[in-house]
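Key idea: predict the complex, not the pieces.
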Amino acid sequence: MKKIYIISISCLLLIACQATVNTVENEQKTIQVDAVDMAKVSTDVFLKNRLEISGVNKKELADGLLKVQVTVRNVRTGFWDQVSSWYMGDNPYQIAYRFTWLDIDGMEVTTAANTWIPMTVVPGDTVRLQAISPNPRCKDFTLSIRENDRARRF
Amino acid sequence: MNNKIISLIAITGIALLLTACGPSVKRIDATGNEGLVTVDGVDFKDWQIAAEKGVNSLLESGVLSRADGRKTILMISTVKNSTSQHINTRILTDKIRQAVLRSGKALTTTAVGGNGPDDTASKQVRRLEEDDMFNQSTVQKRGTAIAPDMSLSGEIVQQQRSQGRMRESYFFFHMALTDLTTGLALWEENVEIVKQGKKPLMGW
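Result:
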């Protein structure tokens, strides 16, 4: 019985040793960001428990195009989260995202290159999803994020 | 009687099995992630990713905007295929060309291209000045076509590796925009895509 406990604990410890990303950054920020109100962020439970959307910034480029950046962090860094991620096969977490652009009338602006972009987000890591508006008429955007099932480990 | 019932069930079962073995064909979302993924080839998703990242980078660079307010005229040069596959690089250049056009920052020419003109009509219609069937005042004059200011070129490189049953392909999409006045590259971008796959124990 004692052996089973030791083996089980060893297994759990091994599982918990999966790679996560540790980050260091400067505390006194010099950047001046134009933050976008995130009132309309909505995610399903699975995504919400894995990815934290920490910021949405925008910048108007010199030629009138809009650049947006959505900062997301994989928050599955705790012991049990790691065990669960290992069991669910979502470490690293595989997502796909797509930006949709809207003009001032709320009409979708079709683009020549508009596809779901796959991305890997390691637990603890922060990634920034960026896009440039296809033309100066675009004033708003929607970011869609989903789990990329095709790229899952199992 | 029992034999008849058993035979009937067997025939029905076989018929159902045969039906289930039929080809399963479906349409999929061309922008989604449901397409086939191969290790050695450039799949449609790879083209889309390369094009989207290239377009984002090109538009962000701002090199298409001119100080004199005139729109840049862009020609599509060649995209060299340095992969082991026969691929049509037009998928990439067409997506970039359309995105550039829709951005309103530049116009693209179809009258001249790295592999010859995309549309030979510009040259053909000027030959009509020798044809008395046409009203000569409506024939396009020589010296009116606008020459390009910049050209878009590139190369796709593939590197293959394998270790045991694991195979890996590294695709390197290189894109460049050249100022035709000076010959200098104003913008360059690389998009890297790596794919891995494990060979089955039996078969290929």
